[in-house]
């Protein structure tokens, strides 16, 4: 309290005393006890009010004992139960947290972890994942800049997250209590299986399988991949104490469109304690993405043969050559290439008004530009009969799709009629035209899009020379073929906007996060933040349906369907206001990653303890662990002087006392007839 505050308090005492004396005792002949009592009450009231006005800061000091925190963290994943260690885990946690000496020395705090990290409530040992890396991150956040030991009761078998050994703060000791039977038993295991999620119809897709063996004798195992009752692949694998791993590479045929489910299995004549890790189900979605391209031309030209070869270098593309008079319907095609259109193409343009195919128009010296002016409105052609050579100038800012510069500036020129080409509306130019190094600002290769319909325009013939020059420069047609196929891929994509867009996987593994996201757009194709989206999920086998609401996030709606059992599911997402809906299907594969272990990961636990200068323990060493914690002189309670400063105006009871003083004074005066 400052000197000025003390002076103000003394002045307040004098003022309160003088005012009280003046009112009740000055020139009063009969100074009875009542007057003295009233004087005292008035003094207290005035002094209390002045105290509030001065508002002195009250400083209090007290000593506190700050104990070292001791987080005790229990693995709540189902692998603990599978390894028959859940009773032991519960017993160890209770013995640590209830130990009086531990409680006296440490500030004990209990946590659980599986897929997430939380305060300990009740241990269920039903978690679908084990994430020790998450434990390390949360401890760093909770005990920032603190010095403390950590006890982790776990089997050390992590199934998600980064490598936890180096995630923990190396300055804070970790004491792992290792659960599970450490006795090595005979075990064959599919450790990892790598496969692409998608495959193309009539192609073969690779499967890479990593096998692991634990045992002390030579063994011949049978590895197989089946689909339903059909065996697709089978082979023998030799393993031994000196050869504990093997890699199997298989090419499987993709003969049916849709989601295909397979089973990989390894087995031998020997009996195993754990057979869950002998089988791994996996799925591949087979896509029929065959794109049929129709090239329509009334003339023969080397460009057509080169285009056909380049497009069909992609096995998913097929080219059909047509004369204009041969075109009756375009329903069997995905992309339409019109090579040097003339009036003979009239029926082709009429047919495409019904088919609404994306087009690639290539012009040249045989093109009827007056006819083109009638049949399309993206460009206006004012061309002469004079022929001209046009060089290409690559635009590096082009961003419709990723494309590399083939060295277009050095490629041979294309031939077209001389004149002006003016665009109407928005046009994306990939290559612009130059005449003998003079930039004409005119397009050479450009792209347009209108209400989801796409078109490409190449204003020049003799692109076969580009293919030949690219081969000379690179000893391969590959770069030119990729360039042409990117144009076809862009044209084959349907970019029509939908009001309800739903994103989901075709299959999930049991225990994985099953999240479905959706976006709903209004008539202006703006994201609608007031949409009301629901999802109905039906188990195909049991016909049981569950309904959920999709919650709005950042420009998306999403729902988490964790907890669904393995099986096949149909679902429907609906927007309740507009009645717009989307239907889909997904599979949940029967694969419990927590059942893949037969032993704790002792090596990782020892490595973690060594990294943090701690020590690993086993359940029968719990007393040794307690003794280690108690005898460690690094962890001492700290006596801290806690100083609290609070302004008097925060003391609400002073207002109550002022009210009591004034009320009592009024009551005494009233009672004695002094009002």
Strand % is 35-45%
Order of strands, main sheet, comes to: 16-15-17-18-23-22-21-19-20
Q: Quick one: how many beta strands?
A: 33
Helix content: 25-40%
The count of helical stretches stands at 14
Q: What about the largest sheet? A: 9 strands, mixed
Q: Work out the oligomeric state of the chains in this entry.
A: single chain
Given the C-alpha coordinates, what overall shape results? extended
Backbone structural class: alpha/beta
Q: Any low-confidence stretches, pLDDT <50, length ≥5?
A: none
Average pLDDT reading: 89
What is the end-to-end distance? 41 Å
Rg? 41 Å
Provide structural commentary.
With 675 residues, the protein is α/β, with parallel strands linked by helices. The protein has 14 helices and 33 strands. It has a 9-stranded mixed sheet with strand order 16-15-17-18-23-22-21-19-20, covered by helices on one side. Strands 4-3-2-5-6 form a 5-stranded mixed sheet. A 5-stranded mixed sheet has the order 8-14-13-10-11, with no helix packed on it. The protein is extended and about 135 Å long. The model has no long low-confidence stretch (mean pLDDT 89).
Helix-strand blueprint:
Layout: H1 3-24, H2 33-54, E1 57-66, E2 68-75, H3 78-82, H4 86-97, H5 100-105, E3 106-113, E4 117-119, H6 132-142, E5 150-154, E6 174-178, E7 187-195, E8 198-200, E9 204-214, E10 219-227, E11 230-239, E12 245-253, E13 258-267, E14 279-287, E15 291-297, H7 302-311, E16 317-322, E17 335-339, H8 346-355, E18 358-363, H9 369-375, E19 379-394, E20 414-423, E21 428-435, E22 438-450, E23 453-459, H10 464-474, H11 478-492, E24 500-503, E25 507-509, E26 515-520, E27 533-539, E28 545-549, E29 551-552, E30 557-560, E31 567-575, E32 580-589, H12 602-611, H13 622-631, E33 638-647, H14 652-671
Parallel strand pairs: 2-3, 2-5, 5-6, 8-14, 15-16, 15-17, 17-18, 18-23, 25-32
Antiparallel strand pairs: 1-33, 3-4, 7-9, 9-12, 10-11, 10-13, 13-14, 19-20, 19-21, 21-22, 22-23, 24-26, 26-30, 27-28, 27-31, 29-30, 31-32
């Amino acid at each position: 309290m400052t000197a000025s505050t003390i002076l103000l308090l003394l002045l307040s005492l004098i003022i309160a005393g003088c005012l009280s004396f003046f009112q009740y005792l000055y020139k009063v002949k009969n100074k009875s006890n009542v007057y003295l009592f009233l004087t005292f009450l008035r003094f207290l009231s005035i002094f209390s009010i002045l105290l509030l006005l001065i508002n002195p800061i009250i400083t209090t000091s007290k000593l506190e004992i700050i104990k070292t925190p001791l987080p005790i963290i229990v693995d709540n994943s189902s692998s603990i139960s599978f390894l028959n260690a859940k009773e032991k885990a519960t017993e160890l946690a209770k013995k640590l947290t209830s130990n009086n000496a531990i409680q006296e020395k440490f500030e004990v705090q209990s946590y659980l972890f599986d897929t997430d990290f939380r305060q300990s409530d009740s241990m269920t040992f039903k978690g679908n994942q084990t994430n020790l890396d998450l434990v390390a991150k949360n401890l760093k956040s909770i005990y920032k800049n603190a010095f403390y030991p950590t006890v982790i009761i776990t089997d050390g078998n992590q199934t998600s997250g980064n490598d936890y050994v180096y995630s923990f703060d190396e300055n804070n000791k970790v004491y792992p209590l290792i659960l599970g039977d450490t006795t090595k038993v005979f075990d064959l295991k599919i450790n990892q299986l790598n496969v692409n999620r998608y495959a193309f119809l009539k192609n073969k897709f690779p499967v890479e399988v990593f096998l692991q063996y634990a045992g002390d004798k030579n063994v011949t195992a049978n590895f197989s991949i089946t689909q339903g009752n059909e065996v697709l692949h089978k082979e023998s694998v030799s393993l031994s104490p000196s050869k504990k791993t093997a890699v199997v590479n298989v090419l499987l045929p993709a003969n049916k469109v849709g989601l295909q489910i397979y089973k990989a299995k390894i087995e031998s004549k020997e009996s195993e304690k754990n057979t869950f890790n002998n089988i791994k189900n996996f799925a591949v979605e087979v896509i029929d993405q065959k794109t049929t391209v129709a090239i329509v031309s009334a003339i023969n030209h080397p460009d057509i043969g080169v285009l056909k070869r380049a497009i069909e270098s992609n096995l998913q593309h097929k080219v059909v050559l047509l004369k204009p008079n041969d075109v009756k319907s375009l329903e069997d095609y995905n992309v339409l290439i019109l090579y040097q259109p003339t009036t003979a193409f009239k029926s082709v343009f009429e047919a495409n008004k019904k088919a609404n195919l994306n087009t690639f128009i290539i012009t040249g010296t045989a093109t009827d530009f007056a006819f083109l002016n009638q049949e399309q409105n993206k460009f206006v052609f004012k061309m002469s009969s004079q022929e001209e050579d046009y060089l290409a100038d690559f635009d590096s800012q082009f961003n419709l799709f990723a494309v590399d510069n083939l060295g277009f500036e050095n490629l041979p020129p294309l031939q077209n009629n001389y004149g002006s080409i003016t665009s109407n509306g928005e046009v994306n130019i990939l290559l612009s035209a130059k005449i003998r190094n003079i930039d004409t600002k005119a397009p050479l290769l450009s792209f347009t899009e209108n209400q989801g319909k796409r078109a490409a325009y190449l204003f020049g013939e003799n692109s076969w020379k580009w293919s030949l020059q690219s081969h000379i420069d690179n000893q391969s047609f590959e770069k030119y073929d990729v360039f042409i196929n990117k144009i076809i891929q862009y044209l084959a994509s349907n970019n029509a906007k939908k009001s309800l867009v739903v994103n989901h996987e075709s299959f999930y593994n049991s225990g994985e996060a099953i999240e479905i996201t959706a976006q709903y757009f209004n008539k202006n194709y703006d994201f609608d933040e007031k949409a009301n989206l629901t999802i109905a999920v039906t188990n195909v086998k049991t016909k049981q349906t569950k309904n959920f609401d999709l919650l709005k996030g950042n420009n998306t709606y999403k729902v988490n369907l964790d907890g669904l059992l393995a099986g096949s599911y149909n679902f429907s997402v609906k927007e309740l206001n507009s009645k717009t809906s989307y239907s889909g299907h997904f599979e949940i594969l029967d694969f419990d990653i927590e059942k893949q272990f037969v032993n704790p990961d002792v090596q990782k636990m020892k490595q973690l303890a060594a990294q943090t200068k701690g020590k690993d323990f086993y359940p029968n060493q719990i007393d040794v662990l307690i003794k280690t914690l108690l005898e460690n002189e690094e962890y001492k309670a700290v006596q801290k002087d806690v100083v609290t400063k609070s302004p008097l105006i925060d003391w609400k009871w002073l207002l109550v006392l002022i009210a009591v003083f004034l009320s009592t004074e009024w009551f005494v005066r009233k009672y004695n007839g002094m009002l």
